[in-house]
Amino acid sequence: MKRICAFLLCLAALPIVKAQNNKVTTASMNEIKFEFTLDSGGSPVYSVYYGEKPVIKPSPMGFTLSNDSAFDKHFELTGTDRSSVDETWKPVWGEVSSIRNHYEQVTVHLKQKDNPHRLLNIIFRVFDDGVGFRYEFPRQPGLKYIVVSNELTGFNLAGDHKTFWIPGDYDTNEYSYTTSKISEVDNQQIVNSSTDIAVRLAPDRYAVQTPLMMKTADGLYINIHEAALINFPAMQLHVDRATYKLTANLVPDAVGNTAYVHAPFKTPWRTIIVSDKATDILASKMILNLNDPSKIDDPSWIKPMKFVGVWWEMQIGKGTWSYSNDADSLSADGNLIPNGTHAANTANVKRYIDFAANNGIPGVLVEGWNTGWEDWFGNWKENVFSFVTPYPDFDINEITRYAASKSVKMIMHNETSGSATDYERQIDTAYRFMNKYGYTSVKTGYVGKIIPRGEHHDGQWMINHYIRVAQKAASYHIMIDVHEPVRPTGLQRTYPNWLASEAGRGNEYNGFSNGNKPGHETIMPFTRLMGGPMDYTPGIFKIKGYSNDVPDRQVHTTLAKQLALYITMYSPLQMAADMPDNYVKHMDAFQFIKDVAVDWDDTKILEAEPGDYITIARKAKGTSDWFMGAITNENSRNSNVSLDFLDKGKKYVATIYADADNADWKENPEAYKITKYLVDAGTKLKLKLANGGGAAISIKPITGVDKGLKNYK
User: Fold this and answer.
1) For the chain, does the N or the C end have fewer beta carbons within 10 angstroms?
2) d(CA 160, CA 198)
């Protein structure tokens, strides 16, 4: 291979070496090494190393444009630009109060030898914890309007790694994770047997979704994803099981093209995060750093919050979204519910408002309040819902008055049934309606096939739709929580009113299906949550016996683990998802939900192993209070956790919400115990997690009433 140019970014802060024989070397900190070359055919190739260990072996780059025009070979180097950035910025909300953005950037300028007007730039950024790169189509003669048929970016792995994956589905991320070697990836059996996925389409049986998490035999952790997904389709990865090569697989439109762009244009970043510590993967802020700063000049109206809602009772079949005077309705699992059990009625909503007000929960979500639910799912038709017309038993004026009298904020629900075009037609009317009645946030949904017909949830048209909705919501000072969208790529930095998304298999699947495996929540922070917060809806307290139709259905965790999820499944928008009656029976445990914060000054990833366990501590915004969550998979676990992150010389009270000695996710999931001790920075907590269990801990500075407590030993 003839090296036209190479960039090697390595551990030591070495001086820049001047070009010699068309080879240029520069440097970065930490163990990340990155190399770029043009091979003998003029094709761009890159490699990534961690120390001396190969992470990504030499891998191809480029595109196929319309009419099979090759944009991946016959290039020559015309120049390079180099720069370094080391800055700190403050997110509007987040896991930490400030983020360091430290990288070295190299931009490679290329042109095709046989067509000197065909230009391509590739921008590389090397961080302490990984590499990001993107393509830039500069302005150039004869290539203003670009139709992308396919992206040829490869990620050639160095071995048959342990992999945590879900199928590469164009329309949903709501699958259980499979753990296997990369050579064993085959999603067809999973797709065929997945009876609880609403929309299924996986034409490539060896395609997987990002973020893709892997662990090598020699102990490296590798995460591949993308950042700043704007005006481009989502990237899936095709797996060559024989060679361990991954290739970008962009979500197409109805005619098979993937993207339509105008030069100048920059693609999303392709991201590779790597470390020999699993905790470093969860602590990485590289994806956020690759997104643009906030476009909202004054974000003071954006407020992270907790909420309860008229929701779980419908998931488990005790009520309906639809209102009907003359027919039975279907529950979430397809069973008939007698007429007269519409959940979003005024009296029931007031009950939730009362519970929220009495327990310091700021918000109440109501689903099924508006007309259209009788004929909404799976029909692929427009004009299903009105977003301003309540059902007859939902008195919006009275509910608005009552909520205001209790200082509770109502949260709007706008389900589109996949008709994005209809939602865009109604969106100004819907958001003016929200402003009129004091709704400051909205949960949107995209269940079903997308309209425009032929588009997909993860295709370019819908990517732009989600951003249009975020922008429109910001213009009305509305926060959004999007369900059934593409998985996040860090855009919460650019649009901080986009508080959360679903885009994954949430707690709801325990309500109407076979549920989530006990290890599910130990994988998702390494996969789905790498790109942004998830509205996972934790806090289910009635673990068993909530389904009349399926008596043995249950949540696959202990109650204590449901508390711990408020820490380990990060979101600035957290739901106390169970029904009030189930909380009233366990108000001592509910105290943790009342106390736990949703916005943070600091986060410590204390221990982690994908698929096995996670322990995280977070410091509440503007306070000295810390909260800790520890979870495990189906296996019990003993953990010794140091509290050395606490301020030295200060005493704190630790309230430990733990699994009881006889707790077990399957046999005895609701057994827990609560203890209090005095702790300090020298304390090491000994946590015993049950099978499928967890522990939640609040740590607050000592007060006068706490001095009689014993020191933790």
Assistant:
1) C
2) 32
Cis ω on the peptide bond leading into residue 211 (within 30° of 0)?
yes
Instruction: Say if residue 452 is preceded by a cis peptide, omega within 30 of 0.
Output: yes
Residue 637, phi then psi, degrees to nearest 5: -155, 140
677 neighbors 712 (Cβ within 8 angstroms): yes
Burial class (CB in 10 A: 0-12, 13-18, 19+), 588: exposed
Q: What span, in angstroms and rounded, lies between the C-alpha atoms of 510 and 200?
A: 19
**Under 8 Å between Cβ of 31 and 40:** no
Cross-sheet strand order for the sheet of 441-445: 498-501, 479-483, 441-445, 409-415, 363-366, 305-310, 573-575
- In this structure, the number of other CB atoms found within 10 A of the CB of residue 461 comes to 17
In three state form, how does the secondary structure of 131-175 look? EEEEEEECCCCCCCEEEEEEECCEEEECCCCEEEECECCCCCCCC
Cβ-based neighbour number of residue 255 at 10 Å: 7
**How much is the pLDDT for 187?**
85
Compute CA distances 324 → 79, 338, 340, whole Å.
68, 10, 8
Q: What is the pTM of this model?
A: 0.94
User: Could you tell me where the DSSP H helices lie in 194-340?
Assistant: 278-283, 286-289, 312-315
Q: Is the peptide bond before 701 cis (omega within 30 degrees of 0)?
A: no
Which residues of the chain are under the pLDDT cut of 50? Answer: 1-27, 198-199, 326-338
Element (H, E) at 19: strand 17-20
pLDDT at position 622: 98
Q: How far is CA 181 from CA 295, 602, 707, in A?
A: 41, 35, 53
Domains of the chain: 17-289 (2.70.98.10), 305-596 (3.20.20.70)
Are the C-beta atoms of residues 169 and 201 closer than 8 Å to each other? Answer: yes
| Distance in angstroms (rounded) separating the CA atoms of residues 336 and 325 | 15
508 a catalytic residue: yes
User: Residue 144 has what pLDDT?
Assistant: 86
Element (H, E) at 436: helix 420-437
Cα(555)–Cα(544) distance, rounded to whole angstroms?
Answer: 7
- Tell me the H-state helices in 518-638: 520-523, 559-568, 580-584, 587-595
**364 token code pair:** 């109440």
Which residue among the candidates 151, 508, 521, 670 is catalytic per the annotation? 508
Give backbone dihedrals phi and psi of 418, rounded to 5 degrees, phi first.
85, -5
* Residue 96 Ramachandran class (φ > 0 left, ψ -120 to 50 alpha, else beta): beta
Please state the length of the chain.
713
Q: Output the pLDDT for position 548.
A: 79
In order, the DSSP letters of 319-372 are SBS---SSS-EE-TTS-EE-TT-BS--HHHHHHHHHHHHHTT--EEEE-S-BTT
Amino acid at 693: G
- Determine the straight-line distance between the first and last CA of the chain, rounded to whole angstroms: 63
